[in-house]
Amino acid sequence: MPVNDLYRDYRLSWFGQPGESSDVVLMSRVRLSRNFARLPFPNRADMKQLAAVQSMASSVFSDIETAAGQEFDAVGLDGLTELERRVLEEKDLISESMLESTQYRSAYISADRRVSILVNEEDHLRIQCMAPGLDLTTPFETASRIDDAIEAKLDMAFDERMGYLTSGPTNLGTGLRAEVFMHLPGLAYTRNMNSVASTAQQLGILVQGIGSKDNETPGSFFAAMNQMTLGYTEASILENLAGAVKEIIAHERRARKALLLYSKDRLEDAVWRAYGILRYARSLDEKEIVELVSKVRLGIDLGLLDELPPEACADLLLASRSEYIKNLSGSENLSPPEIDRQRAAMVRRVLADHGREGIT
Amino acid sequence: MPVNDLYRDYRLSWFGQPGESSDVVLMSRVRLSRNFARLPFPNRADMKQLAAVQSMASSVFSDIETAAGQEFDAVGLDGLTELERRVLEEKDLISESMLESTQYRSAYISADRRVSILVNEEDHLRIQCMAPGLDLTTPFETASRIDDAIEAKLDMAFDERMGYLTSGPTNLGTGLRAEVFMHLPGLAYTRNMNSVASTAQQLGILVQGIGSKDNETPGSFFAAMNQMTLGYTEASILENLAGAVKEIIAHERRARKALLLYSKDRLEDAVWRAYGILRYARSLDEKEIVELVSKVRLGIDLGLLDELPPEACADLLLASRSEYIKNLSGSENLSPPEIDRQRAAMVRRVLADHGREGIT
Lengths: 360, 360
Hints:
The structure is a homodimer.
Chain A: E1 25-34, H1 47-59, H2 61-68, E2 72-76, H3 82-90, E3 106-110, E4 115-119, E5 125-132, H4 137-151, E6 158-159, E7 163-164, E8 176-183, H5 185-189, H6 193-202, E9 205-209, E10 221-226, H7 234-280, H8 286-301, H9 311-319, H10 322-329, H11 336-359
């Protein structure tokens, strides 16, 4: 079953791979929240009702495959180990809430892994579609085709005035959530993130740091997403987000040029030191890796470092995640220092793989 | 003239090369201070008297060559550029006081560079002999042979009760100063340097950090030297120092074993990170290099890092000195950031040279 590779492979075709403005944008994601009519939302449903939702979803499985034009794996979450669930969650293919509640929960994952349909998450169905670079159109069209195929067979909870009914009020209406993941070291280093985020806010776009506990954003990775789902058409929501992201991309590129102009030497030194540490450290924690990879990627994008292709950076981020490493090692109980050691070894392996590619 | 290579080569056969206990000891040095009879010490001499000293030294030049069994270069310090003098001083072949006062000052440097005789430094003659590893015997014997050859022709200032008369009181008597340069990261990391230094003090041995401003000792390099020159025979001075050094070596090796036992993972990570930064940094200051090289050398000695021979570390230290780099670049007025950039480039060159040696 191809989905089994997910636990051993790290690469994801939609993350950090070449695409439009992929010097700044790592991926785009569109999610549609849908609920079947006449059944309570999952958080209020009993086991029988959850089972009913799952069997309704099953009944349109082949329609989904036809609409998406590819095969899917139906992954029942209670058939997975906890570690396997955590790996899927790290890869954003299932959500955090599905780590604990597993009964009658499943994920339909497409062969190219760009589509993941969650059954009995917060809503009965969440149709997630991903693409590399800045591309909201492809994922939205795929999600819509899948939605249409399902709605051709099954009734959805829909109100003429409100639109699609959802478990959380923030998804009400279109049920559409679109997100763009960006690498913004230029804006972060030049301390322009706050003004960019507050300008975006005025356009109804939320910009927030990824992986940021205690208000740090290791590696300057940010996500921009729509805040409104009600009272706008899907097209205007996507257009509004794409427009804001294009503004941010332009700001980011200007900030990078300014950095290159005013601090090239310091930047070059920082970029190569980060590369040296990635290549040789024997212990790396998850946060440090993100910071090092961010610097290396900026160096590649600015033409300061040429020993790696840009895609290697995404591979480094994905291959160095803790749950992935624990699952590979076959041990749930790896100590944090041992994870950090295996993570550093994994980083060297990924770099060596890219090194070989570079030589041949 | 072979001495000209000194300004362009960095390697010194007596520094950090293989020898007895060279896992801890980088070099041994013996210095004899001598003054000609009936002429004032250099700091009280007029130009005519300095000239007289120089011509007396000249008159025994070929006797010195015969005694040392090799050719010498007679380097007149006022024939050198200031940068060239600074390079010689960095290599410990002339002393700091000879940077400014150059008239009638010269250095006789042997072909293997293990002997440097300073004329009109603090004393009329300072005969310095160096050897790699812990070896006070060879340099002392060479210095004594040279001293005997000079004294066979010329009268020295000598008092039956006091011994040899010298410009400074600390050299009075035997005129013998012996020094051993050591790398003591084990004792430094385990915070045992203070107790080692104070035990040595009780034996009349001064142990002090090298390159330590503000009480730091970058890279944990220390020198041990005799404090007494009067009232002891040369043999007992050397024996006392060698005995103390052997004690320190034993302590250092025990400390390294303890580090390996209790902090191997942390140490291994620190060692490889230092190596990664040396290989890839684009800017390195003199102090950081010393710290990085110290870690790498410890890693080599403990068998944690195998990409370099131990001698490479000495090369890195010598090749990355500021005056040497300035002189190579041909410019007195290199800015500090530019020196740091060229230093990082030089480090990469030295590592690449050793890499090639490793491959062939």
